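ok so I'm stuck.
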Amino acid sequence: KALYQLHLIRARDARAHVPKDLRLVEAFGYTLGGVYMARYDSSPCGKLDEVVILGGLVWNPPTSCAWASRVYVDSKEAREHGVKTCGLPSRVAKFDDAVTTQG
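replied:
not stuck anymore, here's the structure
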């Protein structure tokens, strides 16, 4: 299960969260950032919950990709995998399964 929520981010704000050697994709002073949330039933690290903060869209010739400025996972094993195998800025976090609705 996953949710990918994109947002327009001011390019000048996004640059603070994207390495200086990467070229930001922008139009009219904005780039795309957002949040990616996922619950994996299986992964190289087993069952896993993850939240990724996307700092902006960057050029990765011949295409572009979203830059993960923060990654939160719910186990030490997933953090180690993210850091060592994928080079991600992973951190361990605790997630609450509570869902609230209004109305």
